[in-house]
Design brief:
Distance between the termini: 42 Å
Strand content: 15-25%
Shape: globular
Radius of gyration: 24 Å
Oligomer: single chain
Number of strands: 22
Number of domains: 3
Helix content: 25-40%
């Protein structure tokens, strides 16, 4: 941990503006969160180290073909990622399905022709893409913010607790002051680039360093063409290259529109050090790989690529030095710090959708409900009364409870199918470890996430302010949670029943019939997810009661 003593000694501060909330990072999480907080009447300042917005979202544009090309996040799934689907609808942004029809190519020997394989259900299993590129979502969110809300080119290097406010110290320029701070950054960047006075708890500090940044050390390449010629040959555009000389390890069709122009995207198989070594020759190597897969027409493309390992505000030194790892999420990173005045955001902290755009929005939603909670005691701007009155006309508490109960029953009923969707996605992405455990946990997190979103809509009608609170527990908590009684076991039983009949899992004996140790690990994971959900539900009821009392 950086030594707080190395920072400049405190100096008397002139009277200046203190924001309600300062958000460090203008990626999807930071922008979506700012939008929510400003709608509640809070004064928000977003600071971004880059000169552009979007974080890991970056869309290039090919003048030759007129296509938008996502060199960062590309896909989302309507069936399992409700927040981004709802936000796109709210902002009036269109999306379309990822092109998957046709065979997939597999190249396992550099001296042989690729093998054509049919992938049932497609490789991307119902993925969608934002029309015009993911940057359109960034632009739409930024357009909802007032002038001056976002400052770019301001790299925060330290946070200092000044008592009544927190001081954000940039590398150059004047400090920013706020009552609460959100670090909407990859955890490893927080660990690497920001000093804290006083220091963070050691367990949190170690967890920040241990949490991989999803796709941070990857590079993505896209080649555009006048036509998607591979489709007429019966190819989907999907290809997997699995030999030691691979340049692109995975390829996919990212054409925009209805086939007027074509584009093939892929993840570079070389690690960060190898990419640096072959930097000058990499375009030729990519052309050669595409030509080997799809024929001579693939050598005439316009190449666009971005090496995220060279982006210092995405990729930490630790990420560059280690092999890529799947997204991990630790509940410790979702806990408020500095007595409820500092929060960690970003996709890697999400309980649902970690590593995806959905995760950034889930994280923003969690923090939006966490700022100005009673234990923080720093919110100077009351929540507008109109927001509390919204939904009251829907009926009495009994009616609202009935609506909530129906929602929970529907979510419980859909859970087994969503488990199968998560499992299929893991298999289609060639993942082979802990399939049942990961698919079950993703399903539980999704159900809890949607339940909390439904609770938010019904909170005013539930009349949480007029219910007893005993020892920090809201009187409605037990009544709402009882709807999930027995659900963990039922979900696990349904998953095991499906596994036992799944041909796709027949080559994975440990998944087909998990042993006792695996089942215990799954049970513990589900129990931990349940505890976190139960605490969050109770907290949201308490916040509603406190906010209503203020008004």
């Amino acid at each position: 941990m950086p030594d707080a003593d190395t920072m400049a000694a405190p100096v008397p501060l002139p009277v200046s503006r203190v924001f309600d909330v300062a958000i460090v990072g203008a990626g999807l999480c930071g922008l979506a969160l700012a939008r929510q907080l400003i709608a509640r009447g809070l004064e928000v300042q977003v600071v971004e180290a880059r000169e552009r917005l979007g974080g890991r979202v970056f869309t290039a544009h090919c003048q030759a073909t007129g296509q938008a090309l996502d060199l960062g996040p590309t896909w989302f799934w309507l069936e399992t990622e409700p927040r981004i689907a709802a936000l796109l609808t709210e902002l009036g942004l269109a999306s379309g399905p990822q092109h998957d029809p046709g065979d997939a190519l597999w190249l396992t020997d550099p001296n042989r022709e690729p093998e054509r394989r049919v992938e049932p259900g497609g490789v991307h299993v119902g993925a969608h893409r934002i029309q015009g590129g993911a940057a359109r979502l960034v632009e739409a969110l930024a357009a909802t913010l007032p002038d001056g809300c976002v400052r770019t080119g301001l790299a925060v290097q330290a946070l200092r607790d000044r008592g009544t406010f927190i001081e954000l110290l940039p590398s150059t320029g004047q400090p920013v002051r706020a009552r609460q701070v959100v670090l909407a950054l990859p955890p490893r960047l927080v660990h690497e680039k920001i000093q804290f006075d006083p220091p963070l708890p050691p367990a949190v500090w170690e967890t920040l360093a241990a949490t991989p940044t999803w796709m941070a050390a990857q590079a993505k390449a896209v080649s555009t063409f006048a036509q998607p010629f591979w489709r007429s040959a019966g190819h989907s555009g999907n290809a997997f290259v699995r030999h030691a000389q691979a340049v692109l390890g995975e390829v996919f069709d990212v054409s925009e529109g209805e086939g007027e122009a074509g584009a093939l995207g892929g993840f570079v198989a070389l690690n960060a050090a190898q990419r640096e070594h072959f930097k000058r020759g990499l375009p030729l190597l990519i052309d050669s790989q595409l030509t080997q897969l799809f024929g001579p027409e693939a050598q005439d493309g316009h190449l666009f690529w971005l090496d995220w390992a060279q982006e210092p505000w995405t990729c930490s030194a630790t990420d560059r030095a280690k092999p890529p790892e799947p997204p991990q999420t630790d509940p410790l990173l979702r806990q408020p710090l500095w007595a409820g005045r500092v929060f960690l955001g970003g996709s890697e902290t999400a309980a649902h959708g970690a590593g995806h755009m959905e995760g950034t929005l889930e994280s923003a939603d969690r923090i939006a409900h966490a700022v100005c909670r009673p234990n923080a005691n720093v919110c100077s701007t009351p929540v507008p009364a109109a927001l509390h009155q919204a939904g009251v006309a829907d009926g009495t508490r009994a009616h609202a409870f009935g609506t909530f109960s129906a929602s929970v029953l529907a979510l419980r009923g859909r859970a087994p199918e969503r488990y199968r969707l998560h499992l299929t996605r893991l298999l289609s992405s060639q993942q082979t470890e802990l399939l049942t455990q990961r698919a079950l946990l993703a399903t539980a997190d999704l159900v809890y996430s949607e339940t909390l979103a439904r609770l938010d809509q019904l909170l005013p009608a539930l009349d949480a302010a007029n219910a007893e609170i005993v020892n920090g527990r809201h009187a409605l908590t037990s009544a709402l949670l009882v709807l999930f009684e027995g659900w963990n076991k039922g979900l696990l039983d349904a998953a095991l029943s499906f596994n036992g009949t799944s041909c796709a899992l027949s080559n994975f004996p440990q998944e087909h019939r998990p042993d006792g140790e695996t089942l215990r690990a799954i049970t513990l994971d589900l129990a931990a997810a349940w505890r976190e959900f139960a605490l969050e539900l109770n907290t949201r009821l308490l916040v509603e009661a406190s906010s209503a009392a203020i008004i």
